[in-house]
Design brief:
Blueprint (H helix, E strand, L loop, with lengths): L2 H12 L7 H10 L6 H18 L3 H10 L3 H12 L3 H28 L8 H4 L6 H19 L6 H9 L2 H13 L2 H29 L9 H46 L1 E2 L2 E11 L2 E9 L5 H13 L7 E4 L11 H34 L3 H11 L3 E11 L9 E10 L5 H15 L4 E4 L1
Parallel strand pairs: 3-4, 6-7
Antiparallel strand pairs: 1-2, 2-3, 5-6
């Protein structure tokens, strides 16, 4: 296979035109722009469901709400309107996008005003307030998948996946939470994330429309087209720059947390010092870790050692803070020390109790073990005709009986001639006394 044939196969493999229907796609996008009738109620219900999910930190509930909501229509319509130069469609799309945002914020605000559940650490809500470049990438590639699915002749489940991946609803719910609780940080952060998702889904739609060759409604003059491109580029840059800065901060904080964990593992116990807890703080570009140390005395030598170990783990000297005031300056009088010693004593007592119990079990097992060789020798001394003895301790039980099982000693003798019945009875009584077993059974 030559190179040109390989390229030809690749082009046929990635070609789109045979698999898309642009006329049906355009009609579908135009119809899905409008928020009227059932769509209004469905959106409000989905927003409330997503708000509940965010309120209780339930990811499955949030995903379910995103599958219900009809949010993609106006955003994809905006991207297509720009791509085909349809000013009227652009006005309609933006107007319906505004209606959609208004309905969502009102519904989520009302929910959070009425909800009796107040979370101290709403992690799912907080996650919607710090958008990064990764959110940009998700929105862009999700939008590309969305426009391709809209144009594809054979429809699949891609749109549902795009709705989940781009996560348009949670930011709107978080805006409502910020409004309801008068938390401007939550509201602005979530609003920024929603704008990122919307703009880059629209941008992906614009790129898809241009690439697949949607028919333009009007032809712009070159100067106006250049101006529109400059406006789009400026808006994209304005949105991307803060998200890149946020992503850098997230990566830096993640690296710092990992370095702190590694540092704590190597310095948990250092001489008479014990790091029993730590707390990290991130303030803009500056990250610090506060070490809570139980120590006799944290002198300059101890601190210098900790500084050196921290440097080896990628932490700066200025990022370490020490807290030993809780001990009251002494390892002997502090409440923390007493708690640690009490906890250690309790642990030791538990282990001692376990060891004693195991020793008792071993002792009982040792006592229950029969001196098999000694018994065989004693039987042989009493009955010289016995030339073989097999001893086994077991349990006798009746499957159909409610009585408890009993211990039994089975004795198999090999004797020439066979022991008389009187000797067998005498041997049985002797074995009961000798082995402290009530049930002895002799088999020849």
């Amino acid at each position: 296979m030559n190179l040109s044939s390989l390229f030809s196969r690749m082009r046929s493999r990635i070609a789109l035109h045979e698999h898309v229907d642009l006329a049906i796609a355009e009609d579908s996008i135009r119809r899905n722009i409008h928020f009227q009738g059932p769509n209004v109620y469905i959106l409000a219900f989905a927003i409330v469901i997503a708000s509940v999910g965010l309120n209780v930190n339930s990811i499955p509930v949030i995903i379910g709400a995103m599958l219900i909501s009809p949010l993609m229509g106006p955003i994809i319509g905006t991207g297509m309107a720009i791509g085909i130069n349809d000013t009227r469609l652009l006005r309609d799309a933006l107007k319906n996008l505004g209606v959609m945002v208004a309905i969502s914020i009102v519904a989520s605000t009302l929910y959070f005003l009425l909800s009796p559940l107040k979370l101290e650490n709403p992690t799912e809500l907080l996650a919607r307030t710090n958008p990064t470049i990764y959110d940009v990438m998700i929105a862009l590639f999700g939008g590309l998948a969305g426009i391709l699915e809209t144009c594809r002749k054979e429809k699949g489940t891609v749109i549902s996946g795009v709705a989940i991946a781009t996560a348009l609803m949670p930011p709107l719910c978080t805006i409502g939470f910020g409004v309801a609780t008068l938390n401007i940080h939550y509201a602005l952060g979530a609003l920024y994330l929603f704008f990122i998702n919307s703009v880059f889904i629209a941008l992906a739609t614009f790129v898809g429309v241009k690439y697949m060759g949607f028919k333009k409604v009007s032809v712009l003059d070159s100067s106006r087209e250049r101006r529109n491109k400059r406006i789009m580029a400026f808006a994209i840059i304005v949105l991307i720059i803060p998200s890149i800065a946020s992503a850098v901060a997230v990566v830096r904080q993640n690296n710092f947390e990992r370095n702190v964990e590694s540092f704590i593992k190597t310095t948990k116990v250092l001489g008479n010092n014990y790091v029993y807890d730590y707390r990290t703080t991130h303030d803009g570009r500056n990250s610090t870790v506060e070490l809570f140390i139980a120590a006799d005395e944290l002198d300059s030598s101890n601190k210098e050692t900790l500084y050196q170990l921290a440097t080896e783990q990628g932490l700066g000297r200025g990022q370490l803070m020490f807290n030993t005031d809780i001990l009251g300056g002494s390892m002997r009088g502090g409440k923390l020390t007493q708690d640690l010693l009490a906890r250690q004593s309790a642990t030791i007592a538990t282990k001692d109790s376990t060891i004693a119990h195991l020793k008792q079990q071993i002792e009982r097992m040792s006592q229950a073990e029969l001196p098999y060789q000694q018994l065989a020798s004693e039987i042989k001394a009493q009955y010289p005709s016995v030339n073989g003895v097999t001893l086994a301790r077991g349990t006798a039980t009746q499957p159909d009986s409610t009585q408890q099982s009993s211990e039994v000693l089975m004795v198999q003798l090999s004797s020439t001639p066979t022991l008389p019945q009187a000797d067998r009875i005498r041997l049985t009584q002797w074995l009961k006394v000798r082995t402290h077993t009530d049930d002895v059974r002799i088999v020849e």
